[in-house]
Amino acid sequence: MTTDTAATAAPTPPQRDARLRGRALGLLIVLCGAAFLEGVDVGMFGVALPAIRADLGLAVGELQWVVSAYILGYGGFMLLGGRTADLLGRRRVFLVSLGVFIVFSGLGGLATEPWMLLTARAATGIAAAFMMPAGLSIITTSFEEGPLRTRALLIYAGIGAAGFSLGLVTGGLLTMLGWRWVFFAPVLVSVVLLVLAIPLVPRPAEGSTGTLRGRADVAGAVTVTAAFLALILAVEQSSHADPPVTIALFTGSVALFGAFVAIERRARHPLVPLSFLRRMPLLRAYAGAAMLAAGFLGFQFLVVLVLQEQLGWTSLQTSLAMLVLGIDAILAPTLTPRLVARFGLWPVILGGLAFATASFLLLLPVAPDWTYAAMFPSFLALGLAFTFAYGPLTVAATDGVSDDDQGLSGGLLYTAFQFGAAIGLAATSAALTLASEAAADPIEATRMALTVPIGMSVIGVVIAIAGVLTSRRRRAG
Fold first, then answer.
1. Residue 316: CA atoms inside 13 Å, Cβ hemisphere, count?
2. Phi and psi at residue 366, to the nearest 5°
3. Which residues pair with 204 in a beta bridge?
4. How far, in Å, CA of 311 to CA of 364, rounded?
5. What is the SS3 assignment for 156-185?
6. What is the end-to-end Cα distance of the chain in Å, rounded?
7. Could you count the other beta carbons within 10 Å of the beta carbon of residue 198?
8. What keywords sit in the KW lines (predicted)?
């Protein structure tokens, strides 16, 4: 098994010194750049969809696949991507997947037919599914566990989270130049990152270049990837597909997951050791991440509709209004590490998820005459939610995990984020559809649909409270 370590990188600073400098700082900048790029790539397309539709003549059913094709590739292959990084080497997987991301993002910008665009989006989603867990596991295996790794992870996660919110603004600005720049701009940034990554990403230590032969759980990989694809597709289609289609997809997914469990029990080298899934602290981190993503995506969906369809704002005005969400890019690397050092991971996570709940509740009284000043507290609270929850959840999902399983844990974490996002978006969309039939006006329907993000965030708060209580019992014991 190939295991990347920091053996060939600069010496790791002493455990008591959490400052980042030299080669270690350069490595972190490259990995943060990749995480930010992936987040921006996701956020940009919501704003660019109308322009893409007008130019390529996409039907309504085809248009939603510009986003869905990426989600399927990203969420469906994430677990496989994380385990592949553990088996084939994190450096190799990161560099190759970044190269694939560059190629297909460029091809998407050159697309002249809908099928070309959708193929490019699916391929970039798959590339991101391999790149993201590989990048996360490079951090967790290149920085010694303790204050240094915690600081690196919090910076990494904070920059990645900022990409999602700033992607809305970036998408609005690039679309003004032409929707193809939504594809071409990431290519330019990715090329720079790839050039820097080649010398900075550490090579495997000598003697750790095991082979995949005899260790590849091919049956498990194929089965779980198919199961994830079916489940993501079922969730994504649930709000607009015929019920028999959704039921068939859910049933097929359950059957495939059952087959996967049976395969893992018999596999000599399982893709996901079932004992790994019995580690409650990790499961709690995955569940908290899913709820954070579910609430955010559902809320974002409703806010964009309110601002553009109910209040008549342009896409650029909408993007600029949500710019404050990017506050986590400033506070996550600076304030969050200090809070974690002072209070611990789960109390800070609890604070973040509480801010998310507050954000959604603050928008609940929304009315047609609301100004931006009335909405600002809600947007600020959501930015603080990501500041305090996203990074610490990433640390919690990798804490105590062996180097050989860091890619797996990263894959599970990002899969949880992706599934949470898909479920939150589908559930909120379905709730809005039902509310629109019962409510007297669209604003009232929005208020009713907001109960979904609120409910998701409350579940997240309960999960975080359990984490706080458990961590206190451990300290007391």
1. 6
2. -50, 140
3. 4
4. 16
5. HHHHHHHHHHHHHHHHHHHHHHCCCHHHHH
6. 37
7. 11
8. Cell membrane, Membrane, Transmembrane, Transmembrane helix, Transport
**pLDDT of res. 197:** 94
Distances in Å between the Cα of 262 and the Cα atoms of 76, 232, 268, 276, 411 are: 20, 21, 12, 15, 21
The Cα–Cα gap between 212 and 218 comes to 11
**Does residue 384 carry a pLDDT above 70?**
yes
Mean pLDDT of the chain: 84
Closest by CA to 353, choosing from 387, 379, 398, is 387
Residue 58 has which token pair? 């996409």
> Is pLDDT of 370 > 60?
yes
Q: What is the pLDDT of residues 308-325, one digit of tens each?
A: 778 888 777 877 888 888
Do 326 and 166 form a contact (C-beta atoms < 8 A)?
Answer: yes
- pLDDT higher than threshold 70 for residue 14: no
- Torsions phi, psi of 209, nearest 5? -90, 65
Give the mean model confidence (pLDDT) for residues 269-278: 80
Query: How far is Cα 372 from Cα 102, in angstroms, rounded to an integer?
Result: 37
Q: 71 and 236 in contact (C-beta within 8 Å)?
A: yes
SS3 state of residue 187: helix
209 beta partners: 2
Contact 409, 398 (CB under 8 A): yes
Q: How far is CA 92 from CA 197, 217, 310, 363, in A?
A: 11, 19, 48, 45
Helix (H, G, I), strand (E, B) or coil at 170: helix
Q: Is-contact 129 80, C-beta < 8 A?
A: yes
Which two structure tokens, joined as six digits, stand for 242? 């015929």
The whole-angstrom separation of Cα 335 and Cα 196 is 28
Which amino acid is located at 459 in the chain?
I
What are the tokens at 37? 């790029």
- In the structure encoding, which two tokens stand for residue 152, read together? 């690196």
- Cα distance between residue 340 and residue 388, in whole Å: 9
CA distance 120 to 103: 9
DSSP label at 2? Answer: E
Q: How many CB atoms lie within 10 A of CB 17?
A: 12
Q: Encode 17-75 in three state secondary structure.
A: CCCCCHHHHHHHHHHHHHHHHHHHHHHHHHHHHHHHHHHHCCCHHHHHHHHHHHHHHHH
- Exposed, middle or buried by CB within 10 Å (0-12, 13-18, 19+), for 67? middle
Eight-class DSSP state of 405: G
Per the CB < 8 A criterion, the answer to whether 280 and 397 are in contact is no
pLDDT at 184 over 70: yes
What's the pLDDT score for residue 248? 92
Residue pLDDT, tens place only, 439-451: 778 889 899 999 9
